Amino acid sequence: MNGQDAGGRSGDGADWERRVADTWARMDALVAERGADGFRAAIGELADEQPAGSPPAAFERACAFDSTGLPERAVPLYREALHGGLAGVRRRRAVIQLASSLRNLDRSAESEALLRAELDRGIGTDGSGGTDGTDSAGGARERAEVVALEDAVRAVLALALTDLGRSREAVPLLLTALASHLPRYQRSMAGYAQQLARRAED
To answer: What is the Cα–Cα distance from 122 to 158, expressed in whole angstroms?
Structure first.
């Protein structure tokens, strides 16, 4: 994730990431001050600092459209980022957010297919686990963030299934996602989720 040095632009990837995070942290204030177009422009200016075809830049643009109510503009940018080799936690976020945007565009069958493929893919070491040029400690942290989003994959999949009239398949997914966060009854809830999943298959 390399920036450009020309024109006063930072060549420090860590600095770029910090400025991106800061802009997102100020989203509400920026929208209030400049409107949704102004916020998207602020993200766009940061994205322009990256080389042409940068997957992280495409991802950040997609997020800006998505977060300001334009999922139809976000979808092709998410796909561009993913096809370009987006890695680490951004890759998993892109899959989840693309699937959510597809739902919002009444394309829930596509959303389901995308998320099932993501669950089948698992947490690998090919970028989905997050070794995007970071040191070992940074890679481990990013991998943990990728793992932490597993329940978000299930939650959005459950929503897609509900859209498709398949709530019986959705409930086990939600129970599975919930179980690990409960202070007690984790094993019981996981068992109930498996039972319901078997019934949904009958």
So the answer is: 18
Cα separation, 64 vs 71, in Å, equals 10
Q: What is the pLDDT of residue 110?
A: 98
Cα Dmax for the chain: 63
- 42 near 72, Cβ under 8 Å? no
Cβ atoms 160, 111 nearer than 8 A: yes
**What is the dihedral sign for C-alpha 115, 119, 125, 130?**
positive
The string of pLDDT tens digits covering residues 36-57 is 999 999 999 999 999 999 999 9
Q: 50 exposed, middle or buried (CB, 10 Å; 0-12, 13-18, 19+)?
A: buried
Query: Tell me, what amino acid is at 185?
Result: Y
Using the Cα atoms of residue 186, residue 188, residue 190 and residue 196 in order, give the sign of their dihedral: negative
Angle at 131 between CA 42 and CA 61, to 5 degrees: 20
| Residue written as token pair 């991802």 | 59
CA distance 141 to 116: 25
131-135 long-range contacts (CB < 8 A, ≥24 apart) are 131/87, 131/88, 132/1, 132/87, 132/88, 132/90, 133/1, 133/13
